[in-house]
Amino acid sequence: MDVDDELCLCFHVSRRKIVNYVRLAKPRVPSQLSQCGGAGTGCGWCIPFLRRLFAQETGLRAENAASEEPATSADYARQRGAYIKAGKGTPPPGATPPPTDESAADPLK
Q1: In this structure, is residue 100 part of a structural domain?
Q2: In a domain, 104, yes or no
Q3: Nearest to 52 by CA among 65, 64, 43, 42
Q4: What is the pTM of this model?
Q5: Number of domains in the chain
Q6: What is the span of the domain harbouring residue 42?
Q7: pLDDT, tens digit, for every residue of 26-81?
Q8: Is position 84 within any domain?
Q9: For residue 35, what are the CA distances in angstroms to 17, 18, 32?
Q10: Is residue 20 domain-resident?
């Protein structure tokens, strides 16, 4: 994923914004990343990625963090869509909607 891709699709918070927040605000624990535009407080999909990014930026060990970030923002969105479809989270109003089955099947959409 690119630095300007959204990490929190519910509240449209980019990876760059999170990195800058960690650098400037110096949060002590990953849960404080929620103070950066509400990241991680919507459907919950991005929480493991936020934990891992926090660990990378602060040099701490990530516990229960996602093992690997998807290669593209489209993959990330599709995986979030599967997470939501499985009933594991509910995006708030205004969140980026999960991709439809049609757009997942056709990479040009």
Answers
A1: no
A2: no
A3: 65
A4: 0.84
A5: 1
A6: 1-93
A7: 999 999 999 999 999 999 999 999 999 999 999 876 555 555 778 899 999 999 99
A8: yes
A9: 11, 10, 6
A10: yes
